[in-house]
Amino acid sequence: MKMNLYQDRANGMSLKNITVTDQFWKRYRNLVKKQMIPYQWSVMNDNANIKITKEREDNRIPSEKSHAVANFLIAAGRQKGNHYGYVFQDTDVYKWLEAVAYTLKYAPDEDLQEVADQLIDLIADTQETDGYLVTYFMIEAPERKFKRLKQSHELYSMGHYIEAGVAYYEVTGNTKALSIARRMADCIDENFGPEEGKIHGYDGHPEIELALAKLYEATNEKRYLDLAQYFIIQRGKDPQFFDRQIEADGKDRDIIAGMEAFPLSYYQADKPVFDQEAAEGHAVRVVYLCTGMAHVARLTHNKKVLAACRRLWDNIVRKRMYITGGIGSTPIGESFTYDYDLPNDTMYCETCASVAMAFFARRMLENEPKGEYADILEKELFNSTISGVSLDGEHFFYVNPLEVSIEASRRDPGKSHVMYERQNWFGCACCPPNLARLIASIDQYIYTLDDEKQTIYAHQFIANRAQFDNDISIEQSSHFPWEGHIKFTIENPQRKHFKFAVRIPYWSAHHYTLHHSGGEISPESKNGFIYFDIHQEQFEIELNLDMRVHEIQANNRVKHDLDKVAIQRGPIVYCMEEADNPAPLSLYRIPNKPEFKYTYKPDLLEGVGTIEVEAERLEADPLDGPLYRDYRTYEWKPAHIHFIPYYAWINRQPGEMQVWVRKQL
């Protein structure tokens, strides 16, 4: 199966242009252009007067400044100084550049492009003659290049540039941006691989795999695809690889303090990927690896790699994912733990992990058109990704909790990583630019094309106007996610024969209506999609989805959510917060047969749908009362609960927040 989302092909179907008209996502894309990009550039140039947060109150985290751009200036010889920040600090700049590339596509800006072009020039000046570019090692430890891959993030860092360089080249035509990427890949290819004399290993943080796959598609240079596949297949084959490197480099010469305490499973390196049954270790590492695997599986038709992707996907979404789409249930290593371990007030759910799950879902859709992949993509887009940025675009979450108490965050060391307000920036600032590049590229996540079956899959309800080859155009209109009426207008002047597939989301699978022109056509349903056989000059489809409020129950093996429900309407997961409901929020419960009232409020939180319900609340025990006593039945009193979308919480005032709410049995 040859599927693509946004690649022009010499043969088969291709998407030529797409304009996002969706009001919900236009606001976020404007936020990226007008707030996030200039703000982040200011921070990375050390021009912003802000406080940088140390995650988990870890004093080892460098948080005096970003210095990310200055590191390039120093490495290029343009100014004096030392490297500052993490060894992977370069990637903040690269992800910012990638966000700029996508932004220039939908919002051309000569001044912004000039800034980005100058950054490309600086990166080119910094790059060494053999293609190597990681500023930490160039400035501080040139003799240690590729010598401690378990910690060095070298291939991870260069992979992020390769992604950015490809994106910038494809949008602007800047050949220097692509040349830098190719030289990096050539450097890696020169040093890594199965041949004698090369390093038979891989980076401790997967990323290069997905980057090389993108570079292959941009250049058609098969060496890059072969190298991506090598890194995937080699991973975990030699469990002693990292140890031998550390022994040779010096055991007491850590690059990132504390990293040696983690087992090989943390790096997905304890066994080959084909033998890994569950998602283990650092959540972002796992899903970046899976994204690269899924992309390579499609390009190489490697069924064994795809089977490994399916196995890890199933483990994550069926046993290790939060209802918001967040992953990573412990702050210790930002990692997965074990099946059904999903605590709400100590979890991690890093923004980058949710962004990575969106990447993974997209690549799985390219391999096989299953609605479940698009369902998870939708869950990520509307919940646990955008919860990572404030509505002003200048404050961010690294951790995305499902339950928050200000006192617990302030006074419990085990919950100090859980912030009750979004922060200006982080010492480890991977999340803000990662989120910016996802939002800016949202147009790439709406349709998937199948060249062989001549099928266009519409799997995300994001209003747009899209132009395909053969003069086929599709206009999707809606007020989603607040309303469930979706209309597709297909123009097909050449009367080309093709299939058009529309996803029916899991939350509406049993209640929806579908109307279309040409009554003689009988739609086919398969794997969460409704298929239409298109050959008419014009064809219209109207889909009405179930927008009732749903009470969602967790698997009863998730002990943290027993006798509780989460509130969801459409794709949006809702929460209570103290701004609307007097604390403590733990004292509320929803009645056995609730009557929910939904209201769209255009003036609240940039326009959101709210949900209200008459409920019950316990009277809080007096502060000077006994800590323990003989059991007695509590008296529940009438109360009112007001819910807002989870992604919009803590944009008004600090306070408690809670997703899962008690339910009367």
UniProtKB/TrEMBL annotation:
Domain Non-reducing end beta-L-arabinofuranosidase-like GH127 catalytic intervals: 17-443
InterPro entries tied to this protein: 6-hairpin_glycosidase_sf (IPR008928), 6hp_glycosidase-like_sf (IPR012341), Beta-AFase-like (IPR049174), Beta-AFase-like_GH127_C (IPR049049), Beta-AFase-like_GH127_cat (IPR012878), Beta-AFase-like_GH127_middle (IPR049046)
Domain named Non-reducing end beta-L-arabinofuranosidase-like GH127 middle: residues: 455-547
GO biological process: carbohydrate metabolic process
Pfam families, A to Z: Beta-AFase-like_GH127_cat, Glyco_hydro127C, Glyco_hydro127M
Gene3D superfamilies for the chain: 1.50.10.10
Domain of life: Bacteria
Protein name, entry field: Glycoside hydrolase family 127 protein
Protein species of origin: Weizmannia acidilactici
